[in-house]
Design goal:
The complex is a heterodimer of chains A (233) and B (913). Helices cover 39% and strands 19% of the residues of chain A. Chain A is of the alpha+beta class and 233 residues long. In chain B, 45% of the residues lie in helices and 12% in strands. A five-stranded antiparallel β-sheet of chain B has the order 26-25-24-23-27. A four-stranded antiparallel β-sheet of chain B has the order 14-15-17-16. Chain B has a three-stranded antiparallel β-sheet with strand order 1-3-2. The chains are: A alpha+beta (233), B alpha+beta (913).
Chain lengths: 233, 913
């Protein structure tokens, strides 16, 4: 069995991009941490065994990335930068197509009609006003590109639109509240562990995410740390 | 056979076409390269080679890749029509063609030994070249046509033309006609003066439609009718004036000279010796990575195709080929559009990696595919590309829509119109390579160039040249020879057969780099290209979960078991892991293998015809060794169990023959007894009787032929043949009693306890046995008992539970009636049903002593009531041990839960025994 070619270590990037929308991240790679930070912004962690983590590119993940201000080009660039092998063309096309769907519909505050859903792409509006699951959440049509939304349906409408594949960009905003200062007093018998620091930093950096830790590992402390860093910004 | 070349005959101009044996070795070798068809199959002798080179088909094949210029030169030589043509004649006909190009064209023909140049500015033309029909759309030379006419016909023509007939000798007449025909000016003036319709017809003929279809009846000579007759018919007008001649029964042709004259002396109407100028568009020249990406994609797709069909062969359509549904399924796996998937299947098949097995109706990889899978990327690409270049099929024809709009199947049978495919492909590839760098061209422009380069290749093809060029370009895009219309460096490497150049271009230092990582979640990740043996082993050990640049495998108990089933051992598997896993073997995986190893084969099964079970192992061993049972092929699977492949009956016979006394066991382990078999049939109903009383049970009871004498014999021959009135009254009463409503146990009991008055007078036979009710026993019955039996039979289907019990009680009570001859000496069995606890205990104890069977009703702990007939084993004040009939199973009853008890009557007990 000696005629096998030598196995080599991770030559090239730490990421393997599969055409089935999964990203395999080799975590022992020197660039793994930087790559993980970029990839986590648009892909969802699916499995995290000891050597290779699996992320999956989903529509929702891409839309969240768009909502956080990431463009399709940036996603493609990250994938290109970190990928060890040539990228599957279909995947990049799919990413661009999916991300382009975000923002065609906009939820905004209209001084006259209150909360409205408007579009820059009339066929999309025509499609959604013909869909049963959505139309019941909408108010009267204001013009061809705009439709009123009952305020209480805001959340349900956003979910229904995501299900339909046309996520709405919510620009209506929320009521400004008074800032509540939180400071984490480290040092006096209380100190965050390194992984808690990492988790809090990652959470704050991406603006969203799910912190997964075993029982007793200190998820609350992570949350406190995240809140403190947000309030100190 | 070797022929000696005469020393005084030098090479060169003296060698005439056809005389191949006079060529030098180098010249002959060159000829065989240029006209490869001459050498395949290898000719046996020089004579055979000469014959091939002279044949019409040989010449046609040689001209297959001639461009328009060469073909037109060949046609000009045909028009000149002589074996030795003067170069001046050729120059006259080619017009303004530059001398260099003329010489180039002639050299092309000379290289292929179709002409020879002679020193006196003459060329010697291959006879085969002269026989190519339809040179430039012109007919045969006039000389040959005029020769076929008689003197009378010639005289007729001359008369019609208004010329003198001279001496009247045939040869002179022919010369006169020829002198007219070969004079372009007089021909043109004659046609110019013809009626409009005729003139138009003549010019049309000259343009290229060579043969004139003659109507029926024209077979008779057109020259016999008087001058002027039928002159209105254009063919007749032309023939009568020597402008057209019959060349068969029903066709006529216009001679070359006339056609040439009417074309104004130019051999080609749209004579174009000029290579078409291709309209190019500027495109970005493809960078190496684009070509590499295409190559990687097509190789990967081909691998997946081999993988997919290797694990599950594709089903062929009924009329052969892979249909659209199979292709759609595959398109997902290879990540390509359907149209390209069709092409891919054809290309992979052309490389011999997959094959359609028509007999089994399946398409699957060949053994060559395994070899191919182990090659380097460059070599794998080369195998695909070279096979594509040389295949005599159109890969793009698969998936193209047929006349009914359905896609043609891949790998389907296609008639042999694709013989020019390889030539066309090469032609297109060359046309693409001729494009200046950084430019592309549309399909139409490329098709124009391709057709100009080899017009004979593009006749009789399934589509337009433009369409076919489109196909070829799509295939080239798929293979990475062209990226977005511009050729990559791979194209010249392929066309030049330069494998090393392709290897250099596709060389990837990481091509063979691979890594296998085993993880604790029972997955294996193989990044890059693992050797096929490693992949095969992993596919045995685990299930593929995802493919792409990396392959993800998942181990499971089932997948590891599969490896054990294939004969792997735990140590072997772990050694494989240890050898290849880059980051060690995770514990859960090692445990999984160990666990499967431990459990694999703990349960074993096999096929057997029957088993033979023994009380002791010694007997089993003896039977196993016995020569007389050896033909059963007994196998010992346990110390006391043998199995054999033969049936129960065969084994039983063989064992008995060997002197053993075997019995047969049923499925539940009980012994099967086999009574001596006597054949009996149920007599049919007497006709008429049944129809008179269709629903009557009693009617049915006596409706069989045997019933009558049975009844009389049972009355000792004294009976009247009918029931006594008293018994009928009893039956009526009984029926009324049970028929009213399902009697409650209390009512039944009360009724029995006192005994109905009408029972007292009934005379019963000495031995009363319960009638049949499924038991095949001899029956001795008096007529009253018969009546009861009938009644019971009738009720059996209608009554359940207590109602039936009532009748059974009646039967039992009847047997107890005093007056029977054969009275038992034992104490009277109590006939009552006992319900109080004390009475129950007392009765049970008595029954235990007397060994009577009892029937009891019992309520279980779960509150479920049941009745059972039991044989008592022991009775205490609170617990009863008994065997439950009919299976003799031991059971314990709590006295408190017994609802009632009665002792079975003699008759009942006898039934049980």
């Amino acid at each position: 069995m000696n005629d096998y070619p030598e196995q080599t270590g991770p030559a090239g990037g730490p990421l393997i991009v599969q055409s089935d929308q999964t990203l395999l991240l080799e975590i022992d790679h020197p660039d793994a941490e930087e790559c993980r930070r970029e990839v986590a912004a648009f892909a969802e962690l699916e499995r995290s065994p000891e050597h290779v983590h699996t992320y999956r590119i989903t529509s929702l993940g891409l839309w969240n990335a768009r909502a956080a201000g990431l463009e399709a080009d940036q996603v493609s660039a990250s994938l290109r930068r970190w990928s060890r092998f040539a990228l599957p063309e279909s995947l990049l096309a799919g990413v661009t197509e999916t991300m382009a769907r975000y923002g065609r519909l906009v939820l905004e505050e209209d001084p006259r009609h209150g909360l409205v859903l408007s579009t820059s792409d009339r066929p999309v509006m025509e499609e959604i006003v013909r869909t049963n699951t959505v139309v019941s959440l909408l108010g009267p049509r204001i013009d061809l590109d705009t439709v009123a939304v009952h305020r209480e349906n805001r959340g349900r409408l956003k979910l229904a639109l995501i299900k339909l594949g046309w996520p709405a960009e919510d620009r209506a905003g929320y009521v400004e509240g008074a800032a509540f200062p939180i400071v984490l007093e480290e040092g006096a018998g209380f100190e965050l562990r390194p992984y808690q620091h990492q988790a809090a930093a990652a959470f704050v950096a991406s603006g969203s995410g799910v912190v997964v830790l075993p029982c007793g590992a200190g998820k609350t402390a992570v949350a406190m740390s995240a809140m403190a860093s947000i309030s100190s910004r | 056979m070797r022929r000696t070349v005469p020393a005084e005959v030098p090479d060169g101009p003296q060698v005439h076409v056809g005389q191949l044996w006079l060529l030098s070795e180098e010249q002959l070798g060159r000829l065989l390269v240029l006209r490869s068809d001459l050498a395949e199959p290898a000719p046996a002798s020089m004579a055979e080679l000469e014959e091939r080179s002279l044949s019409l088909s040989g010449v046609q094949r040689a001209l297959m890749d001639a461009d328009v210029l060469v073909l037109q030169l060949a046609q000009i030589l045909t028009i000149i029509g002589q074996k030795h043509a003067a170069l001046t004649d050729v120059r006259n006909l080619v017009g303004d063609l530059p001398e260099a190009e003329l010489q180039q064209g002639l050299s092309w023909l000379e290289d292929r030994h179709l002409i020879c140049r002679l020193p006196e500015s003459e060329v010697c033309v291959h006879i085969g070249l002269l026989t190519i029909a339809n040179a430039g759309g012109l007919g045969p030379p006039a000389t040959s046509l005029v020769e076929s006419l008689s003197a009378t016909d010639l005289r007729f023509i001359l008369k019609t033309l208004g010329r003198k007939c001279g001496t009247g000798r045939r040869a002179d007449l022919a010369d006169d006609v020829l002198s007219f025909v070969t004079d372009p000016d007089s021909v043109r003036s004659l046609v110019g003066g013809a009626p409009d319709e005729v003139r138009e017809y003549a010019y049309r003929l000259a343009r290229g439609s060579v043969s004139i279809q003659l109507p029926w009846g024209w077979a008779s000579e057109p020259y016999r009718s008087g001058p002027g007759t039928d002159a209105t018919s254009a063919p007749m007008w032309l023939m009568q004036r020597g402008l057209a001649y019959k060349d068969s029964m029903h066709t006529a042709v216009m001679p070359t000279e006339i056609g040439l004259a009417l074309r104004g002396g130019r051999p080609f109407l749209a004579a174009s010796f000029q290579r078409p100028q291709i309209a190019v568009q500027s495109v970005t020249p493809p960078d190496a990575s684009a070509a590499e990406a295409r190559v990687a994609k097509v190789i990967q797709a081909a691998e997946r195709l081999v993988d997919a069909w290797g694990s599950k062969p594709a089903a062929l359509l009924k009329n052969e080929g892979i249909g659209i549904r199979e292709v759609r399924r595959l398109a997902g796996a290879v990540d390509m559009p359907e149209r390209d998937t069709f092409r891919l299947i054809e290309m992979v098949a052309a490389a011999g990696l997959i094959v359609a097995d028509v007999r089994r109706g399946l398409a699957m990889p060949t053994s060559a595919a395994d070899e191919w899978l182990d090659l380097d990327a460059a070599d794998r690409w080369w195998a695909l590309a070279l096979s594509w270049l040389e295949t005599s099929m159109y890969p793009s024809l698969a998936g193209a829509l047929d006349s009914s709009g359905k896609p043609l199947p891949a790998l389907g049978y296609r008639s042999g119109f694709e013989s020019k495919a390889a030539g066309q492909r090469l032609c297109v590839l060359r046309a693409v390579l001729e494009l200046p760098s950084g430019s592309g061209a549309d399909h139409g422009a490329l098709a124009e160039v391709a057709v100009w380069n080899a017009p004979m290749l593009w006749s009789d093809v399934p589509g337009t040249p433009t369409g076919m060029v489109g196909w070829t370009l799509d295939e080239m895009e798929l293979l990475g020879l062209v990226v977005d219309g511009a050729p990559t460096s791979l194209a010249p490497a392929l066309i030049g057969g330069d494998l090393q150049a392709a290897r250099n271009l596709l060389a990837d230092p990481d091509a063979r780099a691979w890594q296998m990582v085993l993880q604790a979640d029972l997955t294996a990740l193989v990044a890059g290209r693992a050797p096929s043996s490693v992949r095969a082993e992993l596919e045995l050990l685990a299930d593929v979960e995802g493919r792409g640049s990396a392959t993800l495998y998942r181990f499971s108990q089932a997948s590891v078991r599969r490896a054990f089933d294939a004969g792997r051992h735990s140590a072997e598997i772990l050694a494989f892991f240890e050898e290849h896993a880059a980051k060690g073997v995770p514990q859960p995986l090692a445990y999984l293998v160990g666990d499967v190893d431990r459990r694999h084969g703990q349960v074993r099964l096999g096929r057997a015809g029957c088993y033979i079970r023994f009380e002791d192992a010694a007997l089993a061993a003896e039977v196993a060794r016995n020569k007389r049972t050896s033909k059963l092929g007994l196998r010992q699977i346990a110390p006391t169990v043998l199995v054999c492949d033969q049936s129960n009956d065969a084994a039983l016979d063989a064992l008995r023959a060997a002197g053993y006394l075997p019995v047969v066991e049923s499925e539940d382990g009980s012994v099967v007894y086999t009574p001596l078999l006597r054949h009996r049939a149920e007599a049919p109903l007497a006709p008429g009787h049944a129809s008179a009383h269709p629903g009557s049970a009693r009617g049915r009871g006596s409706s069989r032929p045997a019933d009558r004498w049975r009844f009389q014999l049972s009355k000792d021959g004294t009976g009247t043949g009918s029931c006594s009135p008293g018994s009928r009254a009893l039956a009526a009463t009984l029926l009324r009693t049970v028929g009213e409503s399902p009697p409650t146990p209390a009512r039944c009991e009360g009724g029995l306890h006192s005994g109905p008055a009408s029972m007292r007078g009934v005379e019963l036979p000495t031995v009363l046995r319960r009638p049949t009710l499924g038991l095949e026993e001899p029956v001795e019955l008096g007529d009253e008992a018969q009546l009861l039996a009938d009644l019971l039979q009738e009720l059996d289907g209608e009554l359940e539970g207590d109602g039936m019990d009532l009748v059974r009680e009646l039967l039992g009570m009847a047997s107890q009636y005093p007056g029977g001859a054969d009275r038992d000496e034992e104490p009277d069995r109590p006939t009552e049903i006992f319900r109080s606890r004390d009475e129950i205990t007392r009765l049970l104890k008595q029954a235990d002593e007397e060994e009577w069977l009892v029937r009891l009703s019992y309520t279980s702990a779960a509150g479920k009531s049941s009745e059972a007939t039991v044989s008592l084993l022991g009775v205490s004040d609170s617990v009863v041990l008994a065997q439950v009939l009919p299976r003799w199973t031991d059971r314990k009853y709590l006295v408190d839960r017994i609802r009632w008890v009665r002792v079975l009557t003699d008759a009942e007990e006898e039934l049980v025994w």
